[in-house]
Design brief:
eight-stranded parallel β-barrel; TIM Barrel; alpha/beta; 38% helix
Length: 286
Amino acid sequence: MKYFLFLPVVFLSVLAPLRAAGIPDELKTNGFAIGCQAWTFNKFSVLEAIDKTAEAGGKVIEFFPGQKLSQEEKDVKFGHEATPEVWEKVKAKLKEKKVTAIAYGVVGLDKDEAKCRKVFEFAKAFGIRVINTESVDSIDTFEKLVKEFDIKVGFHDHPKRPNDDKYRMWDPNYILEVVKDRDPRIGSCADTGHWVRSGLKPVDCLRILKGHIVSSHLKDLHAPLPSGHDVPYGTGVSDVAGILDEYRAQGFEGPISVEYEYNWDNNVTDARQCIEFVKNYKPAAK
């Protein structure tokens, strides 16, 4: 009897590494870990992006590779290729502003394991939970590192390219085919704005990818055209409330990044409105 009671304990201990740790409640806003993608503030430095994320009410931030470190050190770039000294300056700013690094991307992941490992080591050093990429061809390489580091990888989608049939990242059915038989920590970085620009309805895309959403760039656009620009959540055509309903139904808690690609010089207020929308969101009645 003791033998059979022991087996489940061993079995669970083996399975435990296959499940990335959940997001702490203190990093969530109304049940979602939402903050800013530093690309929102790409005209500024990474230290300023942290300041602006905090000002917008974000508890978390998604970094991207190559942003300048500061206005004083404009030629110094931040990312996985930066020096430990640069990393420490960014960590100090995060601590000062009480903002947590949660995601990194969109970044290329190399087929060469040593080069790919650099990105995962950087993510581990910052406590980052999701790396966002479009490097489908490197999946065999980084799947090993996903298991080793217990860090998720999300496949990001840009809009459909009318003159490039080889680009398929915009299609949720394609992403599903790529990830469905892989480690469950490999999934979709759902960029809802780019789905709208591709002529798709985000909620439909999310349902196709049910159980495979690992991160999101949440956008609302003023028009469903390739030229559609970002607007504060709830004021455009993207049905952000419906998207949040679907996220909640799927048990997806984030990370969600406000990637606000408009009003570049002064968009903190817009980003704050987006985060406030999520803060005040109430699920649809069933």
